[in-house]
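DATA SHEET
Item: assembly model
Revision: 1
Owner: S.N.
Input lines:
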Amino acid sequence: MIAILAKDLRTELRTLQSLPAMALFAVTTFVIFRFGLDRTALSGSLAAGVLWVTLLFAAILGINRLFVAEREEGGFDAIRLAPIDRTAVFAAKATALLVYLLALELVAVPVFAIFFLDSAAALPPLALALLLADIGLAATGTLISSMAVNSRARDLLTPLVLLPLAVPLSIAATGAIEPLLGVGGPAYDRFGTWLAVLGLYDLIFLLVGYAVFDFLLED
Amino acid sequence: MYGKGLKPLSIATVAALALSLSLVFFYAPLDADQGFVQKIFYLHVPLAIVALLGFVAGGVFAIAHLRSGDSKWDAYSYVSIHMSVIFGVAVLITGAIWAKASWGHWWVWDEPTLVSFLIVFLMYATYYPFRYAIEDRDRQARYASVFAITAGAFVPLNFMAVRMAESLVHPRTFATAEGGLPAEMMLTFLVSLGATGLLWTTLVKFELTAKSASGQLKRLRRALDAPPSGGSSRVAPEVS
Amino acid sequence: MTKAIELRGLRREYGERVALAGVDLSLRRGESLVVLGPNGAGKTTLLRILATLLRPGAGEVRVLGARLPGEAWKARGRIGFLGHEPLLYRDLSGRENLRFHARLHGLSGEAAEARIEALLIAVGMERRAGQRVAELSAGMRQRIAVCRCVLHEPELLLLDEPDSNLDAEGRELARALIGPGSGRTRVLVTHDPERALPDADQVLEL
């Protein structure tokens, strides 16, 4: 599993295909929101919404590309020939995606704070909520991407199927984030509850991915 | 093979529907608040419950398909989801009518169950473009099963999350089957539920039979080397 | 001693198209099989089924004693597959690719490094193995693919037109690793029967 993960990360570092695009997309989207909403400062639900939606759509860019190298170079064959557990592939790919998402946030969240927030007090709990949300997104994204990569119109298919699946995740993520970005400083209404929901989502989809991934790599 | 129980099933369905409709119109009392319009409830809620159960059934069939590799389970799964999506459209439409009649709006975000249902519906509506985008038939069936299982896991999670998103202070204006219903309403509701369930099952069986017949026809044509009749460009599952 | 490959009535269909219609075969260890046939006859399909990459449609299939598809995992890791694609990641170097494949097969550390270097020298690629695969010519990629294929010392080699893209020197170098003298059981698909037939113990025409 580590081998696949290392391979992915090394390739990404060398070619820098997905990460800069994702980060750039996020920052540009923030700018568009500034003009679309005609606001220079955001708080509460509006802030949570803008941040999460932007991150989600930027993530989709990365998710689309997750299996492309395998697909293009017949790489799936190499992995399928090897005497390894299929679920190791799922774990490796999901972890790679998680790393991409975290890297994306490392850039996008501070930029968001600089653009729209007045204080950085909310950032640590925000990071925690985002981490849990990212794990869920990584699990679901890997699952959907591995199926979409073998289809026609794969760039359309991934967002199409992923977005409804991401709704409970979005509800929980924005639910947790919104009070953090309130006007008077971070509040923690139901923070623990929302984190629990995120954790539940993560658990369920990691289990589903673990259980079905074998069937996805067969032929 | 598939058409065996179809006739008695259809008769039973028609009878149940007739019974349920007569109960709705003649037996169940008028609701004090909402008047006649409330009777849509007997249509809307059973449709929703049956549709959701149908989605779950689709997921269960999908598990059977992956474990056994027998493609008949895939056909069951596909048709179950298909029918539930159609029922889902009916749910959303009747829900909108009810909302408009009760509150004057075609859509309300405040009712968590309706919103959850919308999301689930959207999720399963993507089943089709997803399925038809995969060309290889075996792989298509396998991926579709994975989708059905994933979506099945998603349903309860979704309902829970949407419910939590609603402020708990907001009053629930729909007196649904949870609140104490008078006995006549409960009876009518249960009969409607049964009738809708029968309707779903009959339609599913009907579609499976139709697919089986066309599948057999295709095979005969192939065996006779006859050119295929204007086949579909999509790769829908064949029933053997 | 178990046979290397045993096939009885192997069938494979793609939807309505029949790719393989009842293939029978019995191959002993160390033997070489040459598969001939026109384009579209199902040669690649056969090879992929033997490689456990494709499920057999019907019939009995045993590869290295493992029944497919149920026991495919027993045979994996003992098969070396050289298909139409070199199966190399374009943005990594030849050496990195080989290291990756080594780790996929459970080889790592110094032993793996030594083996990789020995193979690279054997195909004459030790100087260019540090370059990205995308920058190499098709022939060089094929040479590295040959290394990849024998890296884990497989008992069975499945070769789909292995000489394609190789120049005369490449062919000679590859022959040592995947040719009849390599001591492994081989199944070879080729469009060049003249060169392959002299070494064949069995011939299958599809």
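QC remark: Chain C is about 30% helix and 25% strand.
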